[in-house]
Design brief:
Radius of gyration: 18 Å
Shape: globular
Number of strands: 6
Mean pLDDT: 87
Structural class: alpha+beta
Strand order of the largest sheet: 1-3-4-5-6
Amino acid sequence: MLPPLIPLFPLPSVVLFPNVLLPLHIFEPRYQQMLADALAGDRVIGMALLQAGWEDSDDGRPGVFPIGCAGVITHVEALPDGRSNIVLRGLTKFRIQSEDGSKPYRVAQVEPIVEGVSRGDRERLFAIRNRLEEVVLAAALKGRRERQFPPDIPDEDLVNALSQYLELEPLERQALLESEGVVSRAKRLLELLEMKVIAYRAPGDDRVH
C-alpha cells in the first residue's frame, strides 16, 4: 500500500517504472535529509520528472509532471562525506494531488494508480513481447546487439524494464509511464522502437522488416 504522503525526488532526466531497479546518488543536503527520513520510516520515495524550464525556477520547486512512480529503498551505501548511493525498486505509479511545504525537500500528497493485468491483457502482452524482442534483438538501437531476454521475466516487467533502460528521451519515457496500463505502454514502446529502427538503420540494411 502506497502511503498517501511521500517525499518527492524530482529529476530532469529520470523516470522510474514499477518493479524496475534505479540506482541514485544522493548528495544535496535537503535530499540527504529526505533519505534519512525515508529510512526512518517506510523507505518510500516518489520519483517525478521535471518539466521544461525547471532551470529558470527561482523558488526551488520547479514544475513536475503530475504522474510519477514511487519506489522502495532496497540498498543504501553511506559515503564518508554524507553522500549516499541507493537503489530504488519501483512500486506503483501515482498522481500528485498537492504538495506539502513543511520540509526542506518536497513532499506530495499522492493517489496510487494501479496497473492490473487481466487474462486478456496477458495474451496481448505476450504477442507484443515477441515483436519487441524481434525489434530490439535485430537492431538494438543504433546497431548494437543484445542477448535474448530471459524467458522467466514476466511480460509486464520486461516492458517496464525496456521503457526505463533503453536509450529514450526523458519525455518519451514519461509518455510511456503515463500510458493507461501495461498493454498500452507495450504498444507505444513497440511503435517508438520501430520508428527508431527505421531512423537509425543504415542505407541498404534490411535486417528489420
